[in-house]
């Protein structure tokens, strides 16, 4: 990893610049797919599934037999691990439920919010080499807690028309009934517009390649909500003299193995750590099946030596990392100064992979600097908080003049009149 | 208003169809404005302000003298009304603050969320005939409670280079220091990209005309968050035999006066109410300064007679209105069945204008059916909920096998290794 020592704050933005992906061209390629699915429904889905996934499906929906088969294929140890992760995620996300608090803002003027689950949500789980069953937990568990009435899941089949059994096992565990073996931009279109087979949903969640991302972006402009804009995954670690080079190297690599476009940054106040981490990375890389991916990601990655952890935190807040690890002596104190980050991992024994899988926090997080304005997925992502108010006749007497004075000043007479007609009765 | 009796559920979607606005053409016109502001900054702003607002400004920022002058120009009664509304909005939005709840998902695995205000936010307040100082409260108050460090406000000046004093008074009251006299797409671009004078922000809030809306939509695709997608304002009223035709007519008109594209729907279980409301509308219309606007809006509006309030609520949930008024005998019971709505007004003495101005709830709400997936603006809109976790050495022993088993099954070895290196120590 490239080593930089004590850069001046003016240099920080350039140093921390992320690669810019222009997806206009991809959107151009995805647009006709969306239009075809909107027009021809299942027929278009079938066509694109043959074209891109090289598989002809008799039925899109996963059958009960396939579900039963998946339960048998997943090893007992993995079943237990998934069940444990589910319990932790459930615990953490259930605690996010807001009970209705009625606020009497003035006498007899009562206002409150009520969390109501989004009726229909669609979860997208990518196919490919790594079966992301953990994402089924991260999206399916809060969707269930929110009380979403219809939860569907789309994930592409392999060339034999099969979905990875761990994905099916996990979906079954969280109670998702409708699983469709379709992927890519065509799956996003199916969920956004609905087809004879695939129900239309109000919000679409989940990761995907650049085509899926572009499709989500496009449908989000025509009435379908999406979880958040997506970019390459990233980690920033702040490490001081108490940090263990082995741990730090392992955490950097666990991010780097995601993809060649992953972003990995180490800020350290302890110059000797820089070399020790680089040496450890070289050593640990040798043991990794995804070595070539990680190596490529590390080419764009940086170790920056800074005078103190305060400066490091200031720099981290400029970068706004998706994942932030504080491998320092007093992580709680430093954690208080976080302004921009998706998820924060405190101390030497809190690897990012804990949050990726099992500690209970969500792993769907804002990348690409979006942490400056967006939160990660949570129970909130699956509900609307609808406001309610109930004003009695006496309450309206108390608040009426305030309303009508403001309405008249905004030259909206009918707004004031809605108060007048009531107070005249 | 057009009267329809007992339509069959299959007809509902057609009956409730909103006009579709194709803003592709407007986006085409707005795009060069955004590009010019990105390239030439203040110079471009000055140019477009002369072109569109017909005013040449010496300085964009409102001066202290102008602020002081505004305080003198706002009548005492209006000052008091605004102050009262501010207290109510503050009370309601402060109650939305979530204290950190630490959850020990497994022994020594501790997870929590922390609300952190978005550092820099921009509020847009339209100019024109009606000075929307109420929106300054609705956006400025939660931004302050959230602890946003920089809150800027853009609003266009009139031909004399002045901003409406009620807007300046309200901005001062909520503690907004930086107010810029610029409007339109160029103001949105200035806040999204920053100029020498106007600070770049992370999220932009506020209503506007179709150019402002298109500009917000465009910048939201390149890294600046926005409050929510916008469409024409709308109300749906469910009224039974206990409803007062005068009140119902006044509420319909208070929505209709917003704009010629406003959507107004009355669902009633009591057929005689339909005629009584139409007669009242005709009578009340005569008293309204914005009569011609309201008349136009009413042309596209409907009264639908339905057999019972349950059916009416089912229809309302299909429509997903921005504002929903329940003018029925037992509004609390019926309110329990709301699935899709932005804000709900219960009972005969709760006009929509209460929530528009003063009861405490927010008036920035999802229109155009977006209530199916989006909430209105709240304190949540101005914070990120950052997740934190702290795992001790013992905690990692407890959870380690779960993490590594899942990581290995997802073929992400480095994720598992981040656990192994720690447990080996």
UniProtKB/TrEMBL annotation, chains A, B:
Q: Which purpose does this protein serve, as stated in its record?
A: Catalyzes the sequential NAD-dependent oxidations of L-histidinol to L-histidinaldehyde and then to L-histidine.
- Xref: SUPFAM superfamilies: ALDH-like
Named in its record, the pathway it takes part in is: Amino-acid biosynthesis; L-histidine biosynthesis; L-histidine from 5-phospho-alpha-D-ribose 1-diphosphate: step 9/9
What protein is this chain from?
Histidinol dehydrogenase
Please name the GO terms that the record assigns under molecular function: histidinol dehydrogenase activity; NAD binding; zinc ion binding
**So where does NAD(+) get bound?**
124, 186, 209
Q: Which UniProt keywords apply?
A: Amino-acid biosynthesis, Histidine biosynthesis, Metal-binding, NAD, Oxidoreductase, Zinc
How the cofactor binds, per note? Binds 1 zinc ion per subunit.
Q: What is its EC number?
A: 1.1.1.23
Q: Which GO terms describe its biological process?
A: L-histidine biosynthetic process
Write out the catalysed reaction: L-histidinol + 2 NAD(+) + H2O = L-histidine + 2 NADH + 3 H(+)
Cofactor(s) required, per the database record: Zn(2+)
Indicate whether Zinc appears among the record's keywords. Answer: yes
What the entry lists under Gene3D superfamilies is as follows: 1.20.5.1300, Nitrogenase molybdenum iron protein domain
Annotated coiled-coil positions are none
Q: Which CDD domains match?
A: Histidinol_dh
One GO cellular component from the entry?
A: cytosol
Positions bound to substrate: 233, 255, 258, 323, 356, 410, 415
């Amino acid at each position: 990893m490239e080593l930089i020592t004590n850069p001046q704050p003016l240099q920080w933005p350039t140093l921390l610049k992320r690669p810019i992906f222009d997806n206009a061209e991809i959107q151009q390629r995805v647009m006709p797919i969306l239009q075809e699915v909107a027009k021809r429904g299942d027929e278009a889905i079938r066509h694109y599934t043959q074209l891109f996934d090289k598989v002809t499906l008799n039925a899109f929906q996963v059958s009960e037999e396939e579900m039963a088969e998946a339960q048998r294929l997943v090893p007992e140890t993995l079943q237990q691990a998934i069940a444990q992760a589910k319990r932790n995620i459930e615990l953490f996300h259930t605690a996010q439920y807001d009970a209705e608090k009625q606020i009497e803002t003035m006498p007899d003027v009562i206002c409150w919010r009520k969390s109501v689950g989004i009726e229909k949500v669609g979860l997208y789980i990518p196919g490919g080499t790594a079966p992301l069953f953990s994402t089924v937990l991260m999206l399916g568990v809060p969707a269930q807690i929110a009380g979403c009435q219809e939860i569907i899941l789309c994930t592409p089949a392999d060339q034999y028309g099969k979905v990875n059994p761990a994905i099916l096992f996990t979906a079954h565990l969280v109670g998702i009934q409708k699983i469709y073996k379709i992927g890519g931009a065509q799956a996003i279109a199916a969920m956004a517009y609905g087809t004879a087979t695939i129900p239309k949903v109000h919000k679409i969640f989940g990761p995907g390649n650049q085509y899926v991302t572009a499709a989500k972006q496009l449908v989000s402009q025509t009435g379908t909500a999406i979880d958040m804009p997506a970019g390459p995954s990233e980690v920033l670690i702040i490490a001081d003299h108490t940090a263990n080079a082995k741990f730090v190297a392992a955490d950097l690599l666990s991010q780097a193995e995601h993809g060649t476009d992953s972003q990995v940054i180490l800020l350290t106040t302890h110059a000797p750590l820089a070399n020790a981490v680089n040496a450890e990375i070289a050593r640990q890389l040798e043991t990794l099946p995804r070595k070539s991916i990680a190596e490529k990601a590390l080419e764009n990655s940086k170790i920056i030596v800074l005078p103190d952890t305060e400066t490091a935190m200031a720099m981290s807040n400029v970068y706004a990392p998706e994942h932030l690890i504080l491998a320092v002596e007093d992580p709680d104190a430093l954690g208080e100064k976080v302004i921009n980050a998706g998820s924060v991992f405190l101390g030497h024994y809190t690897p990012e992979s804990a949050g990726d899988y099992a500690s209970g926090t969500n792993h769907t997080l804002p990348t690409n600097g979006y942490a400056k304005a967006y939160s990660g997925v949570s129970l909130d992502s699956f509900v609307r908080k609808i406001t309610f108010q109930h004003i009695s006749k006496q309450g309206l007497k108390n608040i009426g003049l305030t309303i009508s004075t403001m309405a008249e000043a905004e030259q909206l007479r009918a707004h004031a009149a809605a108060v007048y007609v009531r107070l005249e009765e």
